[in-house]
Write a structure and sequence with these properties.
Length: 356
């Protein structure tokens, strides 16, 4: 197997850390650390930032929020670490939490440190040297969905988990909350999309499918594949938005990123995972398989699909607003304004075809 595991890069200037202070903190809270650490940055980081910290042959991963003004409830590192620690005994794919810090004298913000799960993370294109045929890719795809089903079957009433969400009324809170975030993130020239907001408010289900632990950002680039046996998933990352909520909201959020082979050229340009290759299920097939595996009705999935796209549109707009305000200089964010416009149009096309 020659495929590289997920690679860290040099730290962007705006994201640098105080190495001396961080080193002192880590050695105080984690055993077996010696020498001076090497710190690099993983290339994602449109939301929270992720770093690889290396002490000899010991690798750690640090998560912290981005620079700039943030919503009070967003980028809560200590909450994310708490959710992961509570879920780990019941869902082994969660990385182990090694340390948390609320002392801003260390690196200027809250952060946590976790074990590094070393393996393959799929990005835009499937590495050719994995050697998957269509049957293998289908196996990988079904396993990906099965791990989401497994998460949704965790007993949400267990101690430590019951307190991570607010229970029933989740869908209504999400529609209201993300609509408010959208309006707060608008910039000059952005369409208000009040028609989309109105449809979501009107068509939301009266009650949840169930209340369970949901990931809220479940994508191929948030799962880790075993480097030796890449059809096996050994980890799930990025629990920032995990909570207790409706499982179909989780699936709808995941499918907002699911670009399939017959999608239009603009949506194809957004693709960040290899969901278009032969053997991957289509969005419709994913929904049907999920319904079969869980026994939950997916007959009215249109609402969840549109909401997933809308939520992604809000996230993109929030990042674009930070870019326009000069709170981040990452050049990949410059085109996010056009992406937001397309997502609004895509929501409208789905609404026009909806049976609801």
């Amino acid at each position: 197997m020659t495929t590289d595991v997920d690679q860290a890069r040099d730290i962007r200037d705006e994201d640098r850390l105080d190495v001396e202070r961080l080193d002192a903190f880590l050695k105080q809270h984690i055993d077996r650390l010696h020498g001076t650490p090497t710190i690099r940055q993983f290339p994602g980081g449109a939301s929270n930032l992720t770093y690889l910290i290396t002490y000899g042959d010991c690798e750690l991963v640090l998560r912290r929020p981005p620079s700039g003004v943030k919503a009070k409830s967003a980028h809560d590192m200590l909450r994310e670490a708490h959710v992961m620690a509570a879920l780990k005994p019941h869902y082994p794919l969660v990385p182990a939490i090694l340390a948390t810090c609320d002392d801003h004298a260390v690196i200027g913000c809250d952060f946590y440190v976790m074990e590094r799960l070393c393996g393959i993370i799929l990005r835009r294109d499937l590495p050719a040297d994995l050697g998957f045929d269509a049957a293998g890719i289908r196996t990988l795809c079904l396993g990906f969905i099965d791990k989401l089903v497994q998460l949704h079957q965790v007993d949400a009433t267990l101690p430590g988990l019951a307190a991570i969400g607010k229970g029933e009324g989740y869908v209504a809170r999400q529609v209201r909350g993300w609509s408010d975030r959208w309006r707060a993130a608008l910039t000059d020239g952005t369409a208000t999309c009040e028609d989309v907001l109105g449809w979501l408010a009107d068509k939301q289900p009266a009650r949840e499918t169930a209340i369970c632990v949901i990931h809220n950002d479940y994508r191929f680039d948030n799962v880790v594949l075993d480097a030796a046996h890449p059809l096996a998933i050994v980890g799930v990352l990025d629990w920032e938005m995990s909570t207790l909520g409706d499982p179909l909201m989780d699936l709808g959020g995941s499918l907002a990123y699911w670009v399939q082979a017959d999608d239009d050229a603009v949506f194809q340009s957004f693709r960040r995972q290899p969901t278009h290759v032969d053997g991957m299920l289509t969005r419709r097939e994913v929904v049907a398989y999920y319904g079969e595996r869980t026994g939950w009705s997916v007959d009215n999935f249109d609402f969840f699909e549109v909401f997933g796209l809308f939520r992604l549109m809000v996230i993109i707009q929030q990042i674009y607003r930070r870019f326009m305000l000069g709170q981040t200089t990452n050049p990949q964010f410059a085109g996010f304004g056009q992406a937001v416009g397309y997502m609004g149009s895509r929501c409208r096309r789905l609404i026009a075809k909806s049976r609801l």
